[in-house]
Amino acid sequence: MMDFQFQPLSNWGFRNSHPFIIAGPCGVESEEQIHATVRELSKYPIHLLRGGIWKPRTRPDSFQGIGSQGLLWLKDAGKENNLPVMVEVASPKHVEESLKAGIDVLWIGARTTVNPFLVQEIADALKGVDIPVMVKNPINPELELWIGAIERVYKSGVHRIAAIHRGFSAFEKTKYRNVPNWQIPIELKRRFADLPLICDPSHICGNRDMILEVSQTALDLNYDGLMIESHIDPDHALSDAKQQLIPSELGKVLEALVVRQHSTDDVIFLNLLEELRDKIDRMDADLLHMISERMKVAREIGHYKKENNMTILQVERWNEILTTRLQLGINKELTSEFILKLYELIHAESIQQQTKIMNAEKEKVKE
Ligand code: PEP
Ligand code: MN
């Protein structure tokens, strides 16, 4: 594993305050659209302007982006309003053209991060170039692939890197366009504490209504910034019409956000926090003890089933466990989603332990 040293956003050479706000349309559509949007956006505390020039779209007949001509429109709109600008790159040619147009920051999109060959080609095109790069998570919930892309960019010599969390595709219908799976970016942050982390609530939500809620969650998880799509006339936007905010709505979201501090030296607060954390530590020890005791009983059942030549899985029993535990948990103010996940995990572990017992002899035969 390489030793990474990422530059904090405050060293990127841009105006900076917490949280770092990136805003702009999903796609640059015309000179008028980008100028009008940026003029409005510049009334709010924004640090960096986004605009897609080349849009990787799921279906071939969707708007594919305005192409290279939009680079200069975006750059001009930024200059006019004193804002650095960023675009998405999905090939070495995009990198080359963006650099030529004086674009300030590049981002690698979710559909590109999934492809190590393409990321490597982009990283090679970045060798010897000192431009900040943001790497969106891949569309599938795979942390290693995200880290791999960051690693490839880092190895090309770029050290001003940020990760953008834009949610993950899921087959199931959920209230999100892309499910956040917060534990994935949290694990990224745990492994790379100094890697700036930005949340893109627009692509997580897929609609305007939840942008504030998701942005607030991200800030409460100590994200460094937000990337929010904003368009002067979202209802007529050529891509992502449902999720883009008009600039004044974006302003309202920014104003409504509560920015909390990450650390403090307030002794009273710290003492109480420590007390509560001690409580949690003791409870976790009890919890693990109980789970381990439960597994012991499950193993005992495994032996018993084996002696009586019974199958491990007994669906009626599993149904009964789920129904009763759901009710128990709901009565104790736990969400059904959490209880289901918890019991699926516990049940899978019990089955695994019982399978081991059932097949103990077979293992011996193999030896
Ligand atoms: C975008 O930012 O407009 C975009 C295409 O995002 P993603 O790569 O997250 O789908
Ligand atoms: Mn978009």
Write a structural description:
With 367 residues, this protein is of the alpha/beta class. The protein folds into two domains: 9-256, TIM Barrel (Alpha-Beta Barrel), CATH 3.20.20.70; 267-366, Up-down Bundle (Chorismate Mutase Domain, subunit A). Helices cover 49% and strands 9% of the residues. It has helices at residues 31-41, 69-80, 92-100, 110-113, 116-125, 143-155, 183-191, 201-205, 211-220, 247-256, 267-307, 315-331, 336-358, 360-366; strands at residues 20-24, 48-50, 85-89, 105-108, 133-136, 161-165, 197-199, 225-229. The chain has an eight-stranded parallel β-barrel with strand order 1-2-3-4-5-6-7-8, surrounded by five helices. The longest helix has 41 residues, at 267-307. The radius of gyration is 25 Å and the shape is elongated.
What kind of oligomer do you see?
single chain
* Intertermini distance: 36 Å
Low-confidence stretches: none
The CATH superfamily of the largest domain is known as Aldolase class I
CATH architecture of the largest domain: Alpha-Beta Barrel
The main sheet comes to:
8 strands, parallel, barrel
What's the CATH C level of the largest domain?
A: Alpha Beta
The CATH topology of the largest domain turns out to be TIM Barrel
Helix content: 40-55%
Q: In terms of structural class, how would the helical and strand content be classed?
A: alpha/beta
Element-level helix/strand string: EHEHEHEHHEHEHEHHEHHHHH
Overall shape: it is: elongated
> What's the mean pLDDT score?
95
Strand content: 5-15%
- Number of beta-strand segments: 8
